[in-house]
Write a structure and sequence with these properties.
About 40% of the residues are buried. It is built from 4 helices and 9 strands, in the order βββββαβαβαββα. It is an alpha/beta fold. A 5-stranded mixed β-sheet has the order 7-6-5-8-9. Strands 1-2 form a two-stranded antiparallel sheet.
Length: about 170
Amino acid sequence: MALISFGKKPVRTCGKLPALGSQAPNFCLVDGNLGDKTLDNWARKVKILNIVPSFDTPVCATAIKRFNEEVENEPMLVVLSISCDLPFAQGRFCHTEGIRNIIPLSQMRDRSFGKDYGVEIIDSPMAGLLSRAVVVLDRENRVVYTQQVADIGTPPDYPAALEAARKALEK
């Protein structure tokens, strides 16, 4: 379990992020067309999993916009922004903000993603949502970078995540 914070108050997650070098747990998340998506949908691509509590918060919105800009010219790099938001809300956000380079995914049907990746918040008023984290997977879905953001109200380390993703692209 990871101990993080939200507004200087302690918050616990259900576990820890997958270990560096480990095979990423597969998942089944829901896209904007209510279709099921797994890691196989992005086979042979490097993946940044941008895990957020909700698209509808300022820090999450900023992270999505930043990753959207950073990967605009990276066809073999995909950013999957994952939350508990409904796909309709995610789609509305992306449409309103002009987000075209990330793929929004929802944990609405199968809550195992949060548990398998150790990011489900288990206490506080945020219980049931996902913590803010970034996991980068290489082309074979091995974990090459992780960051469990220590305070939910702060952004992830974009340069470090992007550097890890770009290094994985070179291999």
